[in-house]
């Protein structure tokens, strides 16, 4: 099978869309009006992890994440780690899918059975995964400008309805809440960029992952900042209580009593970013399966992966409220994949690197 | 290969026919669009008595849409909304509701349970306007025919909206803002009040001052002047008039162009004081006087007396609210909380008591931009 190649820009927008994911629903309600501090702090917490990921990729330039793992740990242990990451990707994809379906179920179409929507949405994701990473990259690059457009448009339209006093008192939500908000933002979505490492094998040799990941996460940070502040300025404290703050905030905005109900734009944005995240999770899981089972073409696993994701979404989260509770646990549990396993891989890689150097010196 | 392609195209076309749109469609005719509703405490055994102002879909041919009232009882508001189906074959649709009128007795008990459904249900918009009935029931308000708009509730809603621009005497509060106020420390809720007024010997629903809350319980009403002064202090004024009395029979009418309010807490040792600074820009639009006020000096005089009159009126209103209701509708506490969070911690615990005796310094500066298109006086 010939190798898929994506450009630098495509890789960056894949990362941005993946990180935005369900974050555009509104993040870390516990930080209240200090959400911007939490976002910046969360990003600062992410930076060391970012360096860790970079080091891992720079040990084996031009290789994908799973290749690196297999290379370092060999067939058995390598497979075990790859298996864990496949589970992670499937689980994350299922969760994200369920988040979107819950949104549609509670906010607009309460009478449509969830499974119907899930199956159709997953079908589209599967088609996307089957097409491969190249069309997906082009899709992300194509749709991101629309996303930015709606974001800027809704922010400008609502500028009259904004009350900047909602920012005060700065730091009023307390250090504990700010830090716990920052931690949840660090682990969800920023450190999830560990999954993005799977795509690095498809980059051109000349493109440096460092630049792509850095600019990608920075764009995502900016976007999330604008979204959170827009919601806060429009809705005030109600935005911490709402399940879908962006949707409610833009819903209250009207242009001269005549143009109103822009919230449908937000619903479309949710769909696009969540489609990107779910598809990418599926891609990550499927390529992992390809490596795990040593398949010629990973794409054959797209359907089974999709079905597993639907099942995960339905089985683990019986209600939308259980998802909200899960998010708190998840930010800690995800550390296994975001921090601990990468640390192990990095240490293994360094040891291999030294051994290889010695072997080269002997021969 | 070719067969496969044809099969796929047929499949896609079938999908277009079968899977476009929602799971269960509803025709517009099968919906009753609620334009507003009035909530009262229930009479015969149930908790709530709700009156829905429903658009009459049958009247589409005539130019003006009409509405119909449907009442229902229920233990919760949603229950009442569904119990309507006992009388009509249609289900209520709340996506276009613009106004909720809440009865006095119910507001005196508690407001929060009523708001909960409105905030939780996905159909209702979160910028729906809320008003409190000054009459015994909210139903009386929504029963009155609108003057220019046949739909009673939307006529009242438009009066509320327009009042902000042209009259600026009564606050206009949206649902999510109510939730914000209830959840913010150091500020109490104030909502517009409506009552039955008369026009050409016929009753009509209209705005009438505002309602003052303590937490989510109604404690009393303010009249139009006090309500206007509340708007001055909270900086919500967008327009409206100020009448300046110059001795006997002499009234100058100023139209407000712009009004800015600045509230600053001042801490002097253990004492807290509020400094309220109003900056008002206006134009002179009507003069009932014998003297000629065409000169600049004369306008200065009007400015001076306007300043002192507004100052006295605003100060009196603040004191009335403090002594009669003791509820911080001006958000003085919230100003301290936002700008001096550390000082707020010390006063927070007995803010309600402290507010009642809180001294407020009011300073007003009025500047008259122009005197209309008449240079001198008539006669």
Characterize the largest beta sheet of chain A: strand count, sense, and whether it forms a barrel: 2 strands, antiparallel
Largest inter-chain contact set: A-B, 25 and 22 residues
CATH architecture assignment of chain A: Up-down Bundle
Task: Name the overall outline of chain B.
Answer: globular
Largest beta-sheet details of chain B = 9 strands, mixed
Tell me the CATH topology of chain A.
Amino acid/polyamine transporter I
Unreliable spans of chain B are none
Instruction: Report the C-alpha radius of gyration of chain B, rounded.
Output: 26 Å
Count of strand segments of chain A: 2
Can you list the strand order of the major beta sheet of chain A? 1-2
Query: Which structural class fits the helix and strand makeup of chain B?
Result: alpha/beta
Query: Count of helical segments of chain B?
Result: 12
Determine the mean pLDDT of chain B: 87
Number of strands of chain B: 13
The structural class of chain A is: mainly alpha
* Average pLDDT, all residues of chain A: 90
Silhouette of chain A: globular
What would you note in describing this structure?
The complex is a heterodimer of chains A (363) and B (379). With 363 residues, chain A is an all-alpha fold. Chain A has a single domain (8-357), classed as Amino acid/polyamine transporter I (Up-down Bundle). Helices cover 72% and strands 1% of the residues of chain A. Chain A is built from 13 helices and two strands, in the order αααααααααββαααα. Chain A has a two-stranded antiparallel ribbon. In chain A, a hairpin with a 3-residue loop joins strand 1 and strand 2. The longest helix of chain A has 43 residues, at 65-107. Chain A is globular, with a radius of gyration of 21 Å. In chain A, 48% of the residues are buried. By secondary structure, chain B is an alpha/beta fold. Chain B has two domains: 26-222, no CATH class; 235-379, Nutrient germinant receptor protein C, domain 3 (GMP Synthetase, Chain A, domain 3, 2-Layer Sandwich). Chain B is 35% helix and 31% strand. In chain B, the strands form two sheets. In chain B, strands 1, 2, 3, 4, 5, 6, 7, 8 and 9 form a nine-stranded mixed sheet that branches. Chain B has a four-stranded mixed sheet with strand order 10-11-12-13, sandwiched between helices. The longest helix of chain B is centred in the last third of the chain and has 30 residues, at 296-325. Chain B is globular. The relative contact order of chain B is 0.10. The mean pLDDT of chain B is 87. The interface between A and B is medium-sized, with 25 and 22 residues.
